[in-house]
TrEMBL record:
<protein>
    <recommendedName>
        <fullName>Protein GDAP2 homolog</fullName>
    </recommendedName>
</protein>
<dbReference type="InterPro" id="IPR001251">
    <property type="entry name" value="CRAL-TRIO_dom"/>
</dbReference>
<feature type="compositionally biased region" description="Basic and acidic residues">
    <location>
        <begin position="307"/>
        <end position="326"/>
    </location>
</feature>
<dbReference type="InterPro" id="IPR043472">
    <property type="entry name" value="Macro_dom-like"/>
</dbReference>
<dbReference type="Pfam" id="PF01661">
    <property type="entry name" value="Macro"/>
</dbReference>
<dbReference type="InterPro" id="IPR035793">
    <property type="entry name" value="Macro_GDAP2"/>
</dbReference>
<feature type="region of interest" description="Disordered">
    <location>
        <begin position="299"/>
        <end position="326"/>
    </location>
</feature>
<feature type="domain" description="CRAL-TRIO">
    <location>
        <begin position="340"/>
        <end position="486"/>
    </location>
</feature>
<dbReference type="Pfam" id="PF13716">
    <property type="entry name" value="CRAL_TRIO_2"/>
</dbReference>
<dbReference type="InterPro" id="IPR002589">
    <property type="entry name" value="Macro_dom"/>
</dbReference>
<feature type="domain" description="Macro">
    <location>
        <begin position="47"/>
        <end position="228"/>
    </location>
</feature>
<dbReference type="InterPro" id="IPR036865">
    <property type="entry name" value="CRAL-TRIO_dom_sf"/>
</dbReference>
<comment type="similarity">
    <text>Belongs to the GDAP2 family.</text>
</comment>
Amino acid sequence: MDDQLGGQDPLGARDTVVHTETLTRWNLTQLPMVSETQVPEEELKNQSPFPWRNDINNKVVLWKGDITELSVHAIVHSTNERMTEKSLVTQTLYEKAGPKMEAEIKNNIKVCKTGEAKISEGYELPSRFVIHTVGPRYNVKYETAAEGALFSSYRSVLQLVRENSVRTLGLCCVHSAKRGYPPQEGAHIAIRTVRRFLERYGDDIDAIIFVCDDETYTVYGKTLPLYFPRSPEEQHKVRALLPEDIGNENGEPVIPERQIRILDKPMYAQRSNDSDFDDKTIDLNAEFGKSISVGRHPFASMQDDPDAMKRLRPKSDVDTRKEEQKKRYERMLKRAHSEDLTSIARLRCLYRTGQDKFGRPVIVFVGKNFPAEAVNLEMALLYAIRLLDPIVDRDYVIVYFHTCTDSDNLPPVSFLKNVYHVLDHKYKKNLKSFYIVHPTWWSKFATWFFTTFTASDIKQKVHSLKGVQYLYSRINPDQLDIPSFVLDHDIQVNGPRYFVPSEEGATEEGL
């Protein structure tokens, strides 16, 4: 490797240099404990879409570390369209590469669009080249577009790998948390794209190193066996864990609803002998294997079942988005029941208590107990889904205590938007009331802004209450588990007892 890259480390003793020969290949990575139950030979013979291949596994490395330290032919740098990403990795990259790289980017590359990749010299880095690419910003409403753009980023990188005869590659996680892309979903696209690439061009590659940080290393460690099983037994074990969409032959996400082809002429056949129509067939959707025959007259041969015809028609973008959202929620629900979420539960920031005066279950969220800056927000969302899913099929109530919260307890607005769009429709439909206790002026403004421009369908269900006694008029005290610091704060602000206007005659709809 040293001979290939110039004979010596470009940085000398100044920085650490990591050589690929020192990294453990995936086929030699320790397998999990093997069950004593033997898998029948017949089942092992069942072909998996990602069968065990030791030769491919020998070209893959999972590594946690600084990508700028890798002595490889090329490393991948995830940036923004103007190549000015404000991140620690970018800053380190430019510092180690020296001013010549910045000059090449500024004068020659200039811009890299989302889904594209551009290559530059590595200059003073241990790597010969740096491949710059731009991953998409994630929005659940445009999940399909984000998946396509992310695949395009990885595909563009791998195309440059082939064009420049790169044999060893350090591949970072292009799907960054900064751009809101869920780590798990991004890992599936990244890993299966590499798998398909190695199946076709593996002879031209010596090693592809998945470079991770503390957070993504765990995600990749769980996802890699699905696409790179290390034994026939592991292949059999993980097959059931593969997602519904495993991509096409290149790893690209597939949307069956949009695979529509029109064959021959769309409606009428050409006249023959000035009188008759030739029999033609229109293939509306190859996936269904059904067709409509058009004979001598447009009405000569019609589908017997009109409902079947409707099912063959392409779905609208709205219907497609709804189906995609439902599938994504189901995937997250499945993860919520498989992940270890005890660390989130211990926070006691979200829990179920009793019921309100109309028998509706009550969920309590304690803002002060939520360490938004430190907690894994994705795990927090999974915990919320696990807790709420069993009760949101009917009317329910949420009580949010904003008591004594500060900036460290407030999650980013982008995360709240993502949560709102990820949750199934039943969450919004069956939410009866959302009470905010001890609101501040700022929280009232933020709530108004969010419910006006993002969550308008729950705007009328949100109510600010200045004290706990106002909550008692809706929910009996014995049905509420309230932290002591909330009650102490309430006494300091409102006094030990204060008058609450009677709500006699109030109806269930009014509350």
